[in-house]
Amino acid sequence: MTEIKQRLQAIEKEALDAINSGDSSTALEAVRLKYFGQKSELKSVLAELKSLSPEDKKIIGQLANIVQQNLSTALKERQDTIHKLELNVRLSCESIDVTLPGSGRPLGHIHPLTQISQEIIDVFRGMGFSVVDGPEIETDYYNFEALNTPEDHPARDSQDTFYTNAGPHVLLRSQTSTMQIRAMEKMRPPLRIIAPGRVYRNEEINARKYPLFHQIEGLLIDRNVTFGQLRGTLSEFYRLLFGKELKTRFRPDFFPFTEPSAELDCQCPFCSGKGCRTCGQRGWLEMLGCGMVDPNVLSAVGIDPSIWSGFAFGMGVERVAMLKYDINDIRHFYTNDLRFLEQF
């Protein structure tokens, strides 16, 4: 036991001398490995404790713990001192010119679909419309039935609409017109709303179509609403959106939830109706579908069609963005290509 005790004391003295003489982080790391590593002499001495009697093992064990603690404390203090010295030397050698310009970070861009959506919303807000929102996972009732769409209508087929496993009548909404019904259930006329959001249709992906896209639907319910007010509202909208007077025209169409229904064409803003590549030399651009709200839709939500009337319209945000920014492929909006996004 006396021999082991003397060896521990010798190791402690030798290690303390090595620690105190260490003049760099590298030297102190070498000391740490030599005296605290798995193959160090201190570890080999501790391995001999098993050959001692219980009384001697207790005495030597306590001494070994004291030696380890003393060495750990001394090493930590010396490492802190050397680290400060090395840091001061480094700082004295590495000067920083605080007058130099910083290395700026590139700023992000608002997505063009978000930009055009906000522009459209701002225009309609200026006309007194409020914004409503609703679920993208809808029921057959809100997406079709309440919008006067018959059961045999092609849009209800799974070739056109995405149905979910949650049930036979649960689907991804194919139009934000669903919010017209939800709004009329909760709000009493008169009312003016727009409903922006994502919609889903089982479309083949090409330059003009994508299974996910964005719509903005509008609805106005009041007394004595006319078709002329619908046209005036939409003409003013396009004037404000494109910043100049543009002619508009209606073409008869059919939508289950409006009667009469129409497609609105707008004079091409790029050539002022003279014909160009954007409008296919026609001078006109097909912009949106619209019409007077069908009385059956009003009755379905408890609004008396003999007192109230209104109009509705819906536009694809991607289509407006493609026209305004002269983009020829809808897929550009979804590729996250920075070369495309950085242009906006």
Question: Your description of this structure?
Answer:
The protein has 344 residues and is of the alpha+beta class. It folds into two domains: 2-93; 112-341, Bira Bifunctional Protein, Domain 2 (BirA Bifunctional Protein, domain 2, 2-Layer Sandwich). The chain is 41% helix and 19% strand. The protein is built from eleven helices and nine strands. It has helices at 2-21, 25-36, 41-47, 54-93, 112-126, 140-143, 178-186, 227-242, 295-300, 317-325, 338-341, and strands at 130-131, 137-139, 170-172, 191-200, 212-222, 248-255, 258-267, 284-293, 309-316. A hairpin with a 2-residue loop joins strand 6 and strand 7. Helix 1 (2-21) runs parallel beside helix 4 (54-93). The mean pLDDT is 85.
Helix- and strand-based class? alpha+beta
- CATH topology tier name of the largest domain: BirA Bifunctional Protein, domain 2
The DSSP helix count reads 11
User: At CATH's second level, what is the architecture of the largest domain?
Assistant: 2-Layer Sandwich
Which CATH class of the largest domain applies here?
Alpha Beta
Strand content: 15-25%
Name given to the CATH homologous superfamily of the largest domain: Bira Bifunctional Protein, Domain 2
- Indicate the overall shape: elongated
What is the quaternary state of this protein?
single chain
pLDDT averaged over residues:
85
Radius of gyration: 39 Å
N-to-C CA distance:
82 Å
**Strand order, largest beta sheet:** 1-4-5-9-8-7-6
What is the string of SSEs from the N terminus onward? HHHHHEEHEHEEHEEEHEHH
- Portion of residues within helices: 40-55%
The poorly predicted ranges are none
Number of domains: 2
The profile of the biggest β sheet is: 7 strands, mixed
